[in-house]
Design brief:
Layout (H helix, E strand, L loop, with lengths): L4 H10 L2 E4 L4 H4 L5 E12 L15 H4 E5 L6 E3 L4 E6 L2 E4 L3 E7 L1 H4 L3 E2 L6 E2 L4 E2 L2 E6 L5 E3 L4 E9 L28 H10 L1
Antiparallel strand pairs: 1-6, 2-3, 2-5, 2-13, 4-12, 5-11, 6-10, 7-9, 7-13, 8-11
Catalytic activity: dCTP + H2O + H(+) = dUTP + NH4(+)
Function: Catalyzes the deamination of dCTP to dUTP.
Pathway: Pyrimidine metabolism; dUMP biosynthesis; dUMP from dCTP (dUTP route): step 1/2
Amino acid sequence: MILSDRDIKKALKDGRLKITPAPDFETQLGSCSIDLKLGNQFRIFKNSLHPYIDVKGKIPIDDIMEEITIADSQPFVLHPGELALAVTQETLQISDDLIGRIEGRSSLGRLGIIVHGTASVFEPGWNGKPVMELGNLGVMPVAIYPGMRICAFTFEELSSPAEIPYNKKKNNYYAGQKGPMASQLNKDFEKDKKVG
């Protein structure tokens, strides 16, 4: 069951959801979603330094990307075909009996901007700054700005609280993230090496 606007407000009041800083319901609350704002931290590819990405980490993924911070008044220009990781201004905490889903905004989608490629689900027990996989599918560069409404979150109730929420999993690579962390996929292979 997807939470309605009144149920989102109730979940925030009851502490099942925590959004910091607190959202402005008048501008950010939809009928069944809440908009979050673009932060000013981005992680971009240094594609001229490496010939390819090796998911086993032979070329460290952190070396393939660099983190940049822009001023609140400065635009971040996303060119066609580019992918950049970005965070919201807000920190989001989800209780053990809810999941969150990140969605794009129609107004940005009409310009070619997507906010996630595959990672739309935020598991029960998730806590941190949501990271978006910003992409430009359009034909023109688009300037986006910190503080603008960038994505919408919907929330669904689970049939029962998760037995092992995300923040208690052993391989919760992104729990508590404060910035746009690079992919941690290579850790899956490191784990396999230890087992094999």
